[in-house]
């Protein structure tokens, strides 16, 4: 299967998940793709960058400067290419845009550049930068099947700028932004350091969030990549993956829900009094390394693995190697743990 078809397949999965009921598990439920038809039209408008018969490239660089002030809002929408956002000095927000076209020769590559346009609008402290590729009708009129053009955004913004970044094929990296941040991509990694992260999702890629403090809820999800949270505090954390590990390292939250199908879940950090922690796997291990002295009730089960703990649990009912029901300390927090094919370990950190 070609790379382009694989990316289209990921979009189809994302669109299918858009229609999932609200009570479904935490897997990515929308990637800002409005419809299957529009997603496929956007993707088929460009040719993947690694085709052997397209060796020449032409580059066009532009810079957009927005007067958003120290607490503005910036939306970044891309089709093919990376998005990088870092903290800058001053009150202006700048977006360096690099379009790279590839063709069989320099003339063909040069002719592709104007086919991809960049919309940049600003109004009342809000700005949007959006890459536009020719639609199917335009491609037919030009007698073209593909447009091999990628667009990269490199952004510097004040720390208080609210950032929303969306891409179909490309990595998203956001660092040292202290305001609200969201990032979604279909084929690529998401890396966020700092900020009030609300949503971080990928279909084919890993999601990593570090050193973030969030007042409300955080949702982090992937289908075929790992989900990693390090030194993150939030009121609620939802983390999901199908074929990637979930690692929640030094996290603090009143509610944590983590689900994976064919990988492992690791969590370390303290429990909150009256907190609830639900972790489910189908084919994978669960390991909790708990710090602090908060007591908890535990309901843990495994169909084909063993359960072990460092804590002195007062059991409720019968005890078996594959089921653990009981209370530690004051039992103020709740642990709801289950895996079908894997072990469960509850240890002290």
Describe, in plain words, how this protein is organized in 3D.
The chain is mainly beta. It has a domain of 144 residues. The chain is 11% helix and 50% strand. It has four helices and 26 strands. Strand 5 and strand 6 form a beta hairpin. The protein is elongated. The protein starts with a helix and ends with a strand.
SSE blueprint and pairings:
Elements: H1 3-18, H2 36-43, E1 56-66, E2 73-77, E3 83-87, E4 93-103, H3 106-112, E5 117-123, E6 126-132, H4 136-141, E7 149-157, E8 162-169, E9 172-175, E10 180-187, E11 190-193, E12 196-204, E13 207-213, E14 217-221, E15 227-241, E16 246-249, E17 252-260, E18 265-270, E19 276-281, E20 286-291, E21 296-302, E22 307-309, E23 314-315, E24 323-328, E25 333-339, E26 344-348
Helix pairs in contact: 1-2
Share of helical residues: 10-25%
Globular, elongated, flat, extended or rod-shaped: what is the shape?
elongated
Question: Would you list the SSEs in sequence order as H and E?
Answer: HHEEEEHEEHEEEEEEEEEEEEEEEEEEEE
Overall SS class = mainly beta
Mean of the pLDDT scores?
A: 86
How many E-type strands? 26
> Unreliable runs, pLDDT <50, ≥5 residues?
1-42, 44-53
Major beta sheet, specifics? 26 strands, mixed
How far do the termini sit from each other? 46 Å
Relative strand content: over 45%
Rg calc: 23 Å
How many helices? The count is: 4
């Amino acid at each position: 299967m070609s790379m382009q078809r694989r990316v289209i397949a990921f979009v189809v999965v994302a669109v299918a998940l858009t229609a999932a009921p609200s009570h479904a598990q935490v897997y990515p439920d929308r990637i800002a793709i409005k419809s299957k038809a529009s997603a496929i039209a956007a993707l088929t408008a460009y040719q993947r960058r690694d085709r052997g018969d397209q060796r020449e490239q032409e580059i066009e660089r532009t810079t957009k400067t927005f007067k958003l002030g120290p607490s503005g809002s910036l939306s970044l929408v891309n089709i093919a290419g990376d998005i990088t956002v870092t903290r800058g000095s001053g009150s202006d927000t700048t977006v360096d845009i690099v379009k790279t076209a590839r063709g069989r020769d320099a003339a063909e590559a040069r002719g592709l550049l104007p086919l991809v346009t960049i919309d940049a609008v600003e109004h009342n402290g809000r700005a949007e930068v959006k890459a536009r590729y020719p639609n199917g009708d335009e491609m037919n009129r030009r007698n073209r099947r593909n447009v091999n053009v990628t667009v990269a955004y490199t952004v510097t913004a004040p720390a208080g700028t609210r950032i929303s970044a969306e891409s179909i094929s490309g990595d998203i990296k956001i660092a040292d932004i202290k305001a609200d941040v969201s990032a979604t991509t279909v084929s690529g990694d998401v890396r966020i350091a700092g900020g009030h992260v609300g949503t971080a999702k990928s279909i084919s890629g890993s999601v990593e969030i570090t050193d973030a403090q969030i007042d409300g809820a955080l949702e982090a999800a992937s289908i075929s990549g790992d989900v990693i949270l390090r030194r993150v505090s939030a009121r609620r954390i939802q983390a999901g993956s199908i074929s990637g590990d979930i690692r929640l390292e030094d996290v603090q939250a009143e509610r944590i829900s983590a689900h994976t199908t064919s990988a492992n879940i690791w969590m370390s950090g303290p429990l909150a009094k009256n907190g609830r922690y639900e972790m489910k796997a189908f084919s994978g291990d669960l390991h909790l390394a708990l710090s602090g002295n908060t007591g908890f009730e535990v309901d843990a089960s495994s169909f084909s693995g063993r359960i072990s703990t460092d804590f002195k649990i007062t059991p409720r009912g019968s005890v078996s190697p594959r089921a653990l029901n009981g209370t530690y300390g004051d039992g103020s927090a709740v642990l709801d743990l289950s895996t079908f094919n894997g072990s469960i370990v509850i240890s002290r950190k």
